[in-house]
Amino acid sequence: MTSLTTPLPVDQSLLYPSPLKEFWRAFSHNKGALAGLLFMLVIVFCALFAPWVAPYSPSEQFRDFLLTPPAWLEGGQGRFLLGTDELGRDLLSRLIHGSRLSLIIGLSSVVMSLIPGIVLGLVAGFFPRLIGPAIMRLMDIMLALPSLLLAVAIVAILGPGLINTVIAIAVVSLPSYVRLTRAAVIGELNRDYVTAARLAGAGLPRLMFITVLPNCMAPLIVQATLSFSSAILDAAALGFLGLGVQPPTPEWGTMLASARDYIERAWWVVSLPGLTILLSVVAINLMGDGLRDALDPKLKNAA
Amino acid sequence: MLSFIVRRFGLLIPTFFGVTLLTFALIRLIPGDPVEVMMGERRVDPQMHAAAMHRLGLDKPLPQQYLDYIGKLAKGDLGESLRTRESVWHEFLTLFPATLELAIAALLFAGTLGLLAGVIAALKRGSLFDHGVMGLSLAGYSMPIFWWGLILIMFFSVSLGWTPVSGRIDLLYDVEPVTGFMLIDTLLGDEEGAFLDALRHLILPAIVLGTIPLAVIARMTRSAMLEVLREDYVRTAKAKGLSPSRVVFIHGLRNALIPVLTVFGLQVGTLLAGAVLTETIFSWPGIGKWLIESIGARDYPVVQNGILLIACLVILVNFAVDVFYGLANPRIRHQS
């Protein structure tokens, strides 16, 4: 019998890949998700560097160039790539600056509902006797109102404006985080590792945030992406109804509202802001689908 | 079955009281006090102010105020509009049929087209048609419908002149409101062309309002059908030599419908929220436009109880969907 003299090369496929690498492999497999990510990177870039990317200030009025069509049309001007609005403001610059508002509203409302949502969901999962059902009933009540209507009602109380828009959208998306967290927590609580942690003497906060929470993150990350896109939609809808960010701030929905009067003679002031909203929301939803498939294969056909 | 319905109904009661708490809190959460807000910018004479506070019952302790509110609701008193002095309930009843007509038209549009597209996409999985349906439905549920409405108006009403821009019917026609549904009322009346005119007014708003439900229904039908087509009973049906259409529609679609119907029910909330936007764009005289105008005019009794009425509507529809679901699926009924 001869013994092997050369050690076998390590089979790469048997090594356990790092979670990040594994995630990226699954995510980048999805072409739609990659396209969405790319588009969002462009938007984020525009938002971060708006004053440098945009050709003009969003409020600069070129009084001699009211409602100039986009550059490629007859009568268009090379200096106003996407044309100008009814006050002679450069549309492209306003759209670029508008991306700042949409991202700020989306991001802050997600953070403002994600954190309380997680805490409430953990509490509801850990105390299933009294506090849990009370919290869940409260969330049911909030779900009884269509989200946009609840947001409208909240803005009606607080008054229109950027911060109130964020608050309204955050409140509206709270219930879904609470429900998701609670459902995930209840699923985890019976697992052996939780019992082991309990027996090892882990305190309640440690059990909640360090033992259980990291294992519940997948659906929450997916939900955060999806509610980011609906935050952008709701903010634009509120702006369109005159209840969101007020003009002359270049918010996409608010821009649409003031463009309504020019629907017969200037299609670009109506089409372009809406198209920007649609593309951003599609991009985020594509990313959300990719995230869901990559993070949580079980959910693949759920929605 | 009866005990299932009773149990589900029992769950409605706390939800209902929760919603009344919410609408009750609405008025009290306004920064400053409601009387000042309602009076607007004018300076209010302190004596008048106190009188108004007393008249509205706002000088009593909060729990007492809440009980008064519930008591009034129990008597069917929803207060009156500050603008028109009409009772909120009466205004709701006059405007609601317009919203209902629009919503039914939107659901019919979304339901037929969505089911059809979903079934075909599932049958031709991976085909160009399938990819087209999935892509369009992604665009559909990402759609800012207020913009979609403007684009359709721009194209069909302004450029082509096919459909009217706004309203429910041309001012030329004088339609007797019998049922409140314009399509039925114009048929009952004898004015020529009124029905067609009403129909032309309805088409665009219905498409706009139906877009998101259409996308959701198409996606849901597709995935439910894909699941069902893999089942053994479908294979058995095929093996028995049944015609393909019988297999797809009787054995397949009927079983795929259960999750689709749930989604249908869930879309009612979306529909009512969408109605706010759609009615604003098309000047459709329904409850959505009414609510937004009342907010603009600071007509708080209307805002407060309009929201309460809409919430009750959503709760009741969800209850109906649950009951229906229980009827269709015994496993749900027998869960504790």
UniProtKB/TrEMBL annotation, chain B:
Membrane topology category: Multi-pass membrane protein
The UniProt record lists the ABC transmembrane type-1 domain at: 96-321
Q: Where are the transmembrane segments?
A: 9-30, 102-123, 144-162, 202-220, 256-277, 307-328
Which Gene3D superfamilies does the record associate with it? MetI-like (1.10.3720.10)
Where does this protein reside within or beyond the cell? Cell membrane
- Coiled coil where? none
**Keyword terms:** Cell membrane, Membrane, Transmembrane, Transmembrane helix, Transport
Q: Primary place of residence? A: membrane
Q: Which SUPFAM superfamilies match?
A: MetI-like (SSF161098)
- UniProt key word Transmembrane: yes
Pfam hit, one: BPD_transp_1_N
Provide any one GO MF term from the record. dipeptide transmembrane transporter activity
Recorded hits in CDD domains, A to Z, give: TM_PBP2
What InterPro entries does this protein's entry cite?
BPD_transp_1_N (IPR045621), MetI-like (IPR000515), MetI-like_sf (IPR035906)
Supply one GO CC term from the record. plasma membrane
The similarity annotation says:
Belongs to the binding-protein-dependent transport system permease family. OppBC subfamily.
Q: What is this protein called?
A: ABC transporter permease subunit
Species this chain originates from: Pseudomonas mangiferae
